[in-house]
Amino acid sequence: MSFFAPPFGVRSEAFAAPVQVRFVHLMSGIATRHSDTVDCLFRVDGHPVTVAISCAALTELREGEHKYLTDQQLVDIAALHLRRTLEQGYDATLAELPLPGEELRRLARERGYL
Q: For 31, 51, 62, 111, which has the most beta carbons within 10 A of its beta carbon?
C-alpha cells in the first residue's frame, strides 16, 4: 500500500548522509503489538520504524470534537511527524515513535484536516 505516502528523503542529525523513508503499511497495533494504537510502519534506510498513533486520541477527536481522520490523513500526519523527528536527530534504529495526542492535533490542524 505504498500509494498512501510517496517515498521521501530527509537529512537527519543522527546519520551522516540523508536517509530514505518509505511507507509500508497502516494497521491496528491492538492485534499485532497489543497496544492501543494505530500503527504506521515506515522503513528508514531499511530500518522498520512504527509511528504509533493513540486510539484514545482518535476517539477523543471523534467523540469529543466530532472530527474524523481518514487512513490517508493519518498516514500523511505520521509521515510529517517522522520527517520532523528525524530532522531533529531521532535515531531511526529505535523501533517505535509515539505520536502524542496534542502533536496529532497540531499536525492535523497544520495540514488543514481539523
A: 51
